[in-house]
Design goal:
2 domains
């Protein structure tokens, strides 16, 4: 199978030919609700003899996705939309949604709403978003994402990067991409892309590639070569991943991922609490369990990897899971969305092993306060 070939239906996967009619019908129902996409390269990484294979779990639909749970915009991203394709949640950072396509689609995607027919959040014409950035000198950091920006042609991506580079107050350009994992040939086969990186990642104005690797098996020889070429082009690579049940929710898996990336010169940056997005019930790990896994993983890592944070992208800001005691769990506002709120504000709640999101704690506190008021 060609690594360039894109697959958009389970009917195109020979290894699934053995499904009986009922199994196929159930998976087709998932495919109709949530888009499915993969490619020949990523398919080749799956061990089909292992029903619990982590690569398979990342990309192949599961009937578990139809469990009623969560919401499509679990972090309220649409609340911060300021122009077509432009979100402005934190004062110095803007998010430019430039693509509604990915090299493959993670089954636990937190932006799966972007791949639905009626969604209008992504702007193919980014001129309004760029105009907004020009008018807001406080924005010094722009995240170009989607979808995956590396699914744009190099010509289109270059045009966007050139326009951002022409804005003096934009010092950092970040490109969010899983293509180094999904299909590193996008980088290996395109010297023009690497030249664009060299041209626009400047000594005082760097481009950062925010690469997503979910499991060590994604770090193939091809992915490692692609990483090295991007680093040689003057781009800094940072790593982030959600914690996913059945993929990386074991300390030894997470520490191997962190260590291997560190050896390659890629800095582990964030492990995210999987958002309670519709369809994600079977992929999530409770916050306290996730933190224990994360903390245990760091014990086997060097100080470079230990810079990583375990956080959630909540509607009210980026919140770090800061620690546990026998009775309490602590959170810290790493980036509050409200500019008047104190950065670093600590929150403490009674432990709740069934909590998957901050709201699960705040709802408990609200109910407790209601009961106290009723007693008085």
């Amino acid at each position: 199978m060609s690594h360039r070939r894109y697959i958009t239906s389970i009917d195109q996967i020979p290894e699934l030919k053995g499904l009986n009619d009922l199994e196929r019908k159930k998976l087709k129902a998932v495919e109709e609700r949530y888009a499915f996409r993969t490619n020949g390269y990523y398919q080749s990484l799956i061990n089909w003899e292992d029903t619990e294979d982590p690569i398979r779990r990342i990309v192949i639909p599961s009937t578990d996705e139809l469990q009623p749970w969560g919401e499509l915009d679990a972090s309220g991203e649409s609340l911060y939309a300021k122009a077509p394709g432009l979100e402005h949640k934190y004062s110095d950072t803007a998010v430019l949604l430039v693509s509604d396509v990915c090299g493959a689609l993670c089954r636990f995607c937190f932006r799966k709403r972007l791949f639905m027919d009626d969604n209008q959040e992504v702007a193919r014409d980014v001129s309004a978003g760029l105009a907004y950035i020009r008018k807001h000198p406080e924005i010094n950091n722009v995240l170009v994402t989607g979808g995956d920006p590396l699914l744009l042609s190099t010509r289109k991506l270059t045009a966007i990067i050139e326009q951002l580079r022409a804005i003096d107050h934009v010092r950092i350009i970040r490109i969010g991409s899983k293509m180094p994992a999904f299909n590193p040939f996008r980088i290996l086969d395109d010297p023009e892309l690497l030249q664009m990186f060299k041209t626009h990642s400047l000594p005082a104005k760097r481009i950062y590639l925010m690469a997503q690797f979910n499991h060590p098996r994604e770090l193939t020889a091809e992915a490692r070569r692609a990483i090295d070429l991007v680093l040689q082009s003057g781009v800094t690579i940072m790593h982030q991943t959600p914690m996913i049940r059945g993929v990386n929710n074991k300390p030894e898996v997470l520490s191997e991922l962190f260590n291997e990336l560190s050896y390659l010169g890629v800095a582990p940056y964030y492990v995210f609490q999987c958002r309670p997005t519709e369809g994600n019930a079977a992929y999530t790990v409770p916050i306290e369990e996730g933190y224990r896994i994360f903390a245990e993983a760091l014990r086997s890592c060097s100080g470079l990897a230990r810079r990583c944070r375990y956080a959630m992208s909540h509607a009210t800001g980026k919140i770090e899971v800061a620690g546990l005691t026998g009775e309490q769990v602590f959170f810290r506002y790493h980036r509050p969305a409200d500019p008047h709120q104190e950065i670093g504000k600590l929150l403490a709640f009674a432990r709740n092993p069934e909590a998957y999101w901050l709201d699960d704690y705040t709802e408990i506190r609200a109910l407790s306060n209601e009961r106290k008021s009723a007693l008085h």
